[in-house]
Design a protein that fits this description.
The chain has helices at 3-14, 22-41, 46-58, 75-87, 102-115, 120-142, 173-183, 188-201, 206-214, 225-241, 268-271, 279-283, 296-308, 340-343, 347-355, 372-378, 389-394, 435-446, 452-463, 472-477, and strands spanning 64-65, 72-73, 316-323, 381-385, 404-410, 414-419. By secondary structure, the chain is α+β, with helices and mostly antiparallel strands. It folds into 2 domains: 3-283, 2-methylcitrate dehydratase PrpD (Orthogonal Bundle), CATH 1.10.4100.10; 293-419, 2-methylcitrate dehydratase PrpD (60s Ribosomal Protein L30, Chain: A, 2-Layer Sandwich), CATH 3.30.1330.120. The strands form 2 sheets. Strands 4-3-5-6 form a 4-stranded mixed beta sheet, with helices on one face. Strands 1-2 form a two-stranded antiparallel ribbon. Strand 5 and strand 6 form a beta hairpin. Helix 6 runs antiparallel to helix 7 and helix 7 (173-183) runs antiparallel to helix 8. The model has no long low-confidence stretch (mean pLDDT 91).
Length: 480
């Protein structure tokens, strides 16, 4: 008896579109629109180019599109390219601590949904089921309590014997495989084998561990998204032809969670009220800026200050940021960049880009990385731990708080702004991104690639996806 696996498979086999709450249906359309938009924008990045080239090199039957292009490859390789694209700019949905589910779950849905001419309802259902499993599994591996203390640091789950956080993002591959299996209507036995195979294909996040341990800048291999997205498709295909794997991977004492070196495993977070309460609806966050999430509160504060006071870069003498002490570290204050990925975690860089009013779709263009205007402004930015961060974190009512203060000094004034929650988070009414804001972000991201008529049809079809009979028609409008 594999209790956890049985519960997951029961959830997948017994949940149909008609069982979904309206709020979940609507949210799925929002994160699908957002994921497609950031993928298309990422075509202009070096990482996006590399992912596209690899997929084209392997090619195969031309059954699925690389988003925003006229390239068609087989479904697994399309998932690889689109998985790389969705996360290439760190502009995709964030769903709680260490959860970037879109590049692991969405690409397989898009590729297989297109190839199989699935309905819009099929895509909504599969994406939601896969996302819910991914979100819960990540939470179970890294722990359910999110607190900051000076003794323990800013994360909960640690690699045993270290203070390095557990990074279980890639375990979302299990959700991606579940989503693909649901589209293909696998029977119970094949679904069990799919999830078991997917669990054994999950990559260990060596790049993240090395970056955290060495306090070094990110490289282009960060979340291993393309490989995992491709595996979400191949694990299903392997199960369909007869491969099997150990179905106790989630139940065993030395199962999946141990492979992360985690000091804890909380399986109730994975299975409790599964199918009755939707964890994803409580934690999903959208990004208004293409950079790592902990910098967003500082950006919100800084942009409000410079816009309200009409400050130009040369007027600003210094910018002081008080935030999460765990963020005030070397790789988050980095001021030299080998590639665009390294800019994503640099708070001085994104503050400089905002100060110079650079269109955020261009923040990671190669021309910006060594712009002397940005480099000069970065030297004005300092980052420190907020003195009240631990107090806010230990207050359960503020457990999602990222209390941040920004001070901007000019010749004559000191301007200050302080916030707890970034724009795009679900924790206050004022920070939730509306449908209109997400559609605006989508248009901004895709307008340099897609003709206007395609762009508008894509918005209409995705936001009314349950009415679409053939998902391949949606993909036609987000490719060339």
């Amino acid at each position: 008896m594999n209790n956890i696996m049985d519960k997951l498979v029961g959830f997948l086999m017994n949940t149909d579109f008609d069982n979904l709450p309206e709020e979940a249906i609507h949210e799925s359309k929002r994160f699908l629109l957002d994921s497609i938009g950031v993928a298309i924008l990422s075509l202009r990045t070096e990482k996006g180019r590399c992912g596209r080239e690899i997929a084209k090199k392997y090619g195969g039957q031309q059954e699925a599109a690389i988003l925003g292009t006229n390239d068609r490859v087989n479904r697994a390789h399309a998932a690889f390219a689109n998985g790389e694209l969705i996360n290439a700019m760190d502009y995709d949905v964030f769903a709680g601590l260490h959860n970037h589910f879109p590049p692991y779950v969405i690409p397989g849905c898009l590729a297989v949904g297109e190839a199989m001419k699935a309905t819009g309802k099929d895509i909504i259902l599969s994406a939601l089921l896969g996302t819910e499993i991914a979100t819960r599994l990540i939470k179970a591996i890294r722990g359910t309590t999110r607190l900051f203390t000076k003794k323990e640091g800013s994360e909960v789950g640690k690699i045993i014997g270290t203070r390095i956080p557990v990074y279980p993002m890639a375990s979302a591959l299990l959700g991606g495989a579940a989503a693909v299996g649901k589209i293909l209507r696998l029977d119970e036995k094949k679904m069990i084998n799919t999830l078991s195979l997917a669990g054994q294909m999950i990559p260990i996040p060596i790049p993240l561990i090395m970056t955290a341990g060495n306090r070094a800048p990110w490289t282009m291999i960060k979340l291993i998204t393309g490989w995992a997205a491709m595996a979400s498709v191949t694990s299903v295909e392997m199960a369909m032809v007869g491969y099997n794997a150990d179905a106790s991977i989630l139940d065993a004492e030395h199962g999946l969670w141990r492979s992360y070196g985690s000091d804890r495993w909380e399986p109730d977070a994975l299975t409790d009220k599964l199918g009755h309460e939707w964890e994803i609806l409580r934690v999903i966050e959208y990004k208004p800026y293409p950079c790592f999430r902990p910098s967003h509160v500082a950006l919100d504060c800084f942009i409000k200050i410079i816009e309200d006071n009409k400050l130009e870069p040369d007027e600003i003498k210094s910018v002081r940021i008080l935030t999460n002490p765990g963020v005030a570290s070397s790789y988050n204050t980095n001021q030299t960049f080998e590639n665009h990925v390294a800019t994503q975690s640099s708070i001085p860089y994104v503050i400089a880009a905002a100060a110079n009013r650079i269109d955020r779709t261009l923040w990671q263009d190669s021309d910006q990385l060594h712009d002397p205007l940005l480099l000069r402004f970065m030297s004005k930015v300092t980052i420190e731990g907020h003195p009240d961060f631990e107090k806010y974190s230990l207050d359960w009512k503020k457990k999602h708080s990222n209390i941040t203060t920004v001070e901007v000094v000019t010749e004559k004034n000191i301007f200050k702004d302080e916030r707890q929650f970034p724009k795009g988070s679900p924790y206050t009414e004022s920070t939730i991104m509306s449908d209109e804001e997400l559609v605006t972000k989508f248009r901004m991201n895709v307008s340099y690639v897609l003709p206007n008529d395609k762009m508008e049809r894509a918005v209409e079809k995705i936001m009314d996806l349950e009415k679409v009979d053939n998902f391949a028609e949606v993909i036609q409008d987000v490719s060339l």
